[in-house]
Write a structure and sequence with these properties.
Elements (H helix, E strand, L loop, with lengths): L10 H9 L4 H4 L3 E11 L2 E8 L7 E12 H4 L1 E8 L4 H6 L4
Antiparallel strand pairs: 1-2, 2-3, 3-4
Length: about 100
């Protein structure tokens, strides 16, 4: 688990960067392809990312991510991302092996 306090960072800009999966290939090193597979909610989606790593073979991942707005209660936002394979029901629904 990675946890970070980000001070002097625009929450709007940070969420925009995370939300725009299709643009990852423009700024994430070695990212050859990125796309949203399914939008599950306003702050929840399933995505596919493929990395073309030098020396190593290509790597790809199916990720399920969502955000939780805790600003009023706790002054924070939580963003959680796991592989789709960690949720068998979701992987089966999306027919991802």
């Amino acid at each position: 688990m990675i946890e970070a306090d980000l001070e002097r960072v625009s929450l709007f800009n940070l969420c925009g960067i995370i939300y725009e999966i299709e643009l990852f290939k423009n700024w994430v090193p070695f990212c050859d392809m990125s796309q949203t597979l399914r939008q599950l909610g306003v702050a929840e989606k399933v995505v596919y990312i493929k990395l073309g790593l030098p020396v190593l073979s290509d790597r790809e991942g199916y990720l399920h991510g969502f955000g939780v707005d805790r600003l009023e209660e706790h002054g924070s936002v939580v963003i959680i991302c796991n592989t789709v394979h960690s949720n068998k029901e979701l992987a089966d629904e999306l027919q991802i092996k």
